[in-house]
What does this fold into?
Amino acid sequence: MVTQVKTLEFTSLGDYVKDHQYNVSLSTLDEKGWSLDNERTSTLFAKIKARGVPLKEYVGGKIYRGVLTGLNEAFVIDKTTRERLIDEDARSAELIKPFLAGRDIKRYELPANDKYLILMPRGWTSV
It folds into this structure.
């Protein structure tokens, strides 16, 4: 049994643990690494891994960089700016996509998604 403590707003740690604990399959705890996902999530992840092709294999080991804006200050925006742009012109929603930079990804944490990328398709600016 494990418990993920997601807040410190409780009066009794023991009660919090009892209320939020769940089972973890022992098969997910090996020398390659541990996964503390619940059994349902572990089963789903195992199915995905069994049926999918790892990115490194899919691209023949040639993993490059992601989107290069050339000027993040102009193309990476926050939620407030996104909402303002969409309020000014609803068609803006088509060009604004959720964005995660590599440094936003951390082990054992869900990434906070508070950044957006203004992404124009290739040829969008051509006449």
